[in-house]
Amino acid sequence: MIERGIDMKFLSRLLILMAAMALSACGGAARFGDDNTVNLNGANAGVDDPTSPAYFEQAVGDRVLFEVDQHTLTTQARQVLDGQADWLLRNADYDAVIEGHADEQGTREYNLALGARRANSVLEYLLSRGVPAERLDVVSYGKERPIEICSAESCYAKNRRAVTVITAGVTG
Amino acid sequence: MMTRFLPLLALLVTWALPAAAQDENRGPLRIEITEGVIEPLPFAVPRFIADSAGGRDLAERITRVIAADLSGTGLFREIRKDAFISPITSFSSPVQFSDWKAINAQALVTGSVSLEASGRLVVQFRLYDVFAGQEMGNGLQFVGTEEGWRRMAHKVADQVYSRITGEGGYFDSRVVFVAESGPKDDRAKRLALMDYDGANVKYLTDSSALVLAPRFSPTGDRILYTSYETGRPRIYVLDVASVRRRALEAQDGAMSFAPRFGPDGRTVVYSLTRGGNTDLYRMDIATGESTRLTSAPSIETAPSFSPDGKRIVFESDRSGSRQIYIMPAQGGPAERISSGAGLYGTPVWSPRGDLIAFTKQSKRRFHIGVMRVDGSEERLLTASFLDEGPTWSPNGRVIMFTRETQGAQGRANLYSVDITGRNLRKVPTDTGASDPSWSPLLD
C-alpha cells in the first residue's frame, strides 16, 4: 500500500530537494536538518496520496489529545475525528484500531482503564459519524507506550492520547 | 516460652551500645533509612562448621546468606568476625558465653554443614541467648541438596528471626516480577522469578508481548498475569514448575486485567473493560465460569481478597476521584474506607488481615501507605516521584513495591520497606524491575 504513494508529484519534489542539496553543498554549512530529509521507505512515502495511511496519519491527523485524567473530546479533537471519519468512509478498504494511552502519572491498573475510556470516546464519535462498527476496534495501553519520555507536562500532554491506527481491512 | 524470649525482645527496642563499640561494629549492609532510628539487636554468626574441606566454601556462603537475611530486616546487626574473641571449632561443644558477652553479641547462631558425596546437604544450627546464657529453642536440622543451599540458609534465618521476634519469617520465599529493559519509549518486559533477596533469577516469558502485574497463587504454585499476546490485554495463568501457561476464558472484544487469586486458589477476581467501562468480575479458574461483581459507569479495578475470602478491597472513581472501597466477595454494597486528600489506588489486603497497603498520589508525589481495614490510622511509608503496586511479605511485616525514577532516563526498580516506614531498601536486580508479587513461605 506504500508503493502507490510514490507518484509524479512526489518525484518532482524529490528532484527539487536534490537540487537544493547540490546548492547547499556549495554553501558549505550543514543547513540540512532532519526536516528536509525525505524518507523513501518510511511513513512519509505516501503522504501526498490522499488514500494512503500515511496521508491519514499526517494530513488528516491520527491522534487526539486529552486533559489530565479526562476522556472527553475537545473541540479540536472533534475536528480531527471528523476528518478521520471522512477518510475512513472514503477508504473502505481499511479498518482501524483505536489505541488509548495515558501519561505516567497514575497507577498501572487505573491508567489501563483510563486509556480504555479515551479509546472508547473516539470509537463512539467515529460511530456517530457513520463509520461501521465492524471496521473499528479498541485497545488500551495505559501508560505502557509513551511516545515522549520526559517527566514534564510538555511530554505528558502528548502521551495522553488516542491514536487511530489504520490496518488493512478484510477486503483490502 | 515467651518469657524466655522477653529479654531479647525488649532489647530490640531499648538496647544502646556505647558509641565507640557502635562505630566499630556497625554492619556494612544498611543502605538507606527513611525515618527514625531503632537500635538493631547485635548478633554473631560464626562460619558454620564444615565436616570436609569441600564443605567449607559452602558453609561460608550459607553463613553469609543467614547474616544478610537478618541484617536486611533492619532489626538485627551483625558483629563482624574480626571482633570475635574465641572461634567456634565444634558444633557440639558448650559455648563460652563470656566471650560473646564481651563483644555484646545478644544472639549467637552456630551451625554445621555436611555435604555428602551423593549431593545431599545437611545443615544444623543452634540459637543462643548470650546474656541469658542458654539456648533459645531447640537445635534444628535441615536436609536438602547442594543446589538448594540458599533455601536452607533462608530457613535457618527464618527460624532465628521467628524465635527472636515472635513473628513468622519471610526469607524462604520468592518474588515474581516484571523485568524491564530498553528505553522508556521502547521498553521490553518479561516475567521473572527470583528469591526474595534478588538471587536465582529465572525468566518465565520472553519479551515478544507486553506483560503486566503477575500475582502468585496462595500456595505459590501458579502465577496470574496480563499479557498482550493477542494484541489486547488478557489474563493468563502460568504453572511455576512446568512454566506452561494458558489463557483464562475471555469475552470477545473485551479487555481483562488486574487479576488476583482468592485464598482458595480457585477463584480469580479481575477487571474487565467493555465499551470503555471497567468493572470487577470473579471467575472459577477451573470451569471458566464468571460472575459480574460491580455494575457502574465508573472505573472499578485493582481488586484484592481478604485472607478469609469473605471481602474484596478495590479501587474506584465512583465518587469522582480514585478511592478505596470494600465489598462482600459476592458483590453488593461497597463501603469507602479511604478518606484523606489525594488519590488512592492498588489496595492489597495484608496476609494478617489487619491492614490494607495502597498507593497514594498527592501533590505530584506518590506514596506507599497502610491503613486499617476500617480506613483509620493511615500511615504513609514512602514518598517519591513514582511509587506504586505494594505486595506483602508472607508475615505481613514488609512491603515490596515499584519505584520509578523520573525523566527521559527513568527506570523502575524494586524496593522494600518495613510497615513502620523504616528500613527502605533497594532489591538488587540486574535489569529494571516492576510489579512485584511476593510468594507465601515455601514448604
Q: Counting H and I runs of at least 4 residues, what is the number of helices of chain B? A: 5
Radius of gyration of chain A: 19 Å
Percentage of β-strand residues of chain A: 15-25%
- The CATH topology of the largest domain in chain B corresponds to Neuraminidase
Number of helices of chain A: 5
Average of per-residue pLDDT values of chain B: 90
Averaging pLDDT over every residue of chain A, what do you get? 82
Write the layout of secondary structure elements.
The complex is a heterodimer of chains A (172) and B (443).
Chain A: H1 8-27, H2 53-61, E1 63-65, H3 75-90, E2 94-101, H4 108-128, E3 136-142, H5 153-159, E4 161-168
Parallel strand pairs in A: 2-3
Antiparallel strand pairs in A: 1-4, 2-4
Chain B: H1 2-14, H2 19-25, E1 41-44, E2 49-50, H3 53-72, E3 76-78, H4 97-101, E4 107-115, E5 120-129, E6 134-135, E7 140-145, H5 149-165, E8 174-181, E9 188-195, E10 202-203, E11 211-216, E12 222-227, E13 234-239, E14 245-247, E15 255-261, E16 267-274, E17 277-284, E18 290-292, E19 300-305, E20 311-316, E21 323-328, E22 335-336, E23 343-349, E24 355-362, E25 365-372, E26 379-380, E27 387-392, E28 398-404, E29 412-418, E30 425-427, E31 432-438
Parallel strand pairs in B: 1-3, 1-4, 2-4
Antiparallel strand pairs in B: 4-5, 5-6, 5-7, 8-9, 8-31, 9-10, 11-12, 12-13, 13-14, 15-16, 16-17, 17-18, 19-20, 20-21, 21-22, 23-24, 24-25, 25-26, 27-28, 28-29, 29-30
